[in-house]
Amino acid sequence: MPTPNADPIAEPITGFDTDVDAEIEVDNGFFDAAAFSASALSDWRKLAATIDHTLLKPEATRTQVENLCDEAVRYRFACAMINPVWTATAAAMLAGTGVPVGVVIGFPLGASLASTLRQEAQTLTRLGAKELDMVLSVGQLKSGEYKAVERSIRGAAEVAHHHGAILKVILETCLLSMEEKLRASEIAISAGADFLKTSTGFSTGGATPADVALLRGVAGSRAGVKASGGIRTLADAKAMLEAGASRIGASASVAIVRELGAE
């Protein structure tokens, strides 16, 4: 009788043999973090354009979500990032403003079925979401079930892209070893992720400059890198941008841009 690991879904993907890959030079393209961060930090408006203005607390009310959307328009943040239940509300408020709606899926545990993630992506993009932040299946990654991880990401990415949306994949770096961070990053990009994202902000740790730099090293110019979790000040945002982030996720967005001169 075959063991559960004999299921092809659970087989590791190839191409990650350390000894072999160490001898292969891969050109992932070049992202000029110094130039990007200098530009973003030169004016609060440019900085705001890199920040996902975020409200993901489970107790968030309709009024708070509406306030978030008002602030997203006022400061021209990259998007208003909310929980799925408020997608239609945010889409109605942000229609015609140029500020997209961002929504999380498989959040915050990364333990949803691949079919559930696809359904979430389908429903939410139809409701108006233009950016989806998906939590990678951490448990499957740690179990070596890399094909399953890749398939769940690819399914969500295909749906998102079909509807003109982008997909950011949250790795939850605080739970991963160095090897797992590298492997997860490569799997996510090969599966169609538009961004690698560090954290949900709901686990044991948030973004660190070291993890951002690591993710950027894998991504190169192939994908964006979003730092999120524990970013509360301008100094925090600066550290992440200088490490290679091209997007910041923060609930303290207004306070951060006000440090740079916004009113």
Give the helix/strand layout:
Blueprint: H1 18-21, H2 33-40, H3 44-48, E1 51-54, H4 62-75, E2 79-82, H5 87-94, E3 101-105, H6 114-127, E4 129-135, H7 138-142, H8 146-162, E5 166-170, H9 178-190, E6 195-197, H10 209-219, E7 224-228, H11 234-243, E8 247-250, H12 253-259
Parallel strand pairs: 1-2, 1-8, 2-3, 3-4, 4-5, 5-6, 6-7, 7-8
Question: Would you write up a description of this structure?
Answer:
The protein is an alpha/beta fold and 263 residues long. The protein has one domain (30-259): TIM Barrel (Alpha-Beta Barrel). It has helices at 18-21, 33-40, 44-48, 62-75, 87-94, 114-127, 138-142, 146-162, 178-190, 209-219, 234-243, 253-259, and strands at residues 51-54, 79-82, 101-105, 129-135, 166-170, 195-197, 224-228, 247-250. It has an eight-stranded parallel barrel, surrounded by seven helices. α10 links the parallel β6 and β7. α9 (178-190) crosses α10 (209-219). The chain is globular. The model is unreliable at 1-24 (pLDDT under 50).
CATH topological fold name: TIM Barrel
Per CATH, the class reads Alpha Beta
How are helices and strands ordered from N to C? HHHEHEHEHEHHEHEHEHEH
Give the domain tally. 1
Number of distinct helices: 12
For the termini, the CA-CA separation is 67 Å
* Amount of helix: 40-55%
Find the CATH superfamily: Aldolase class I
Quote the average pLDDT: 92
Label the CATH architecture: Alpha-Beta Barrel
Task: Characterize the main sheet.
Answer: 8 strands, parallel, barrel
The outline comes out as: globular
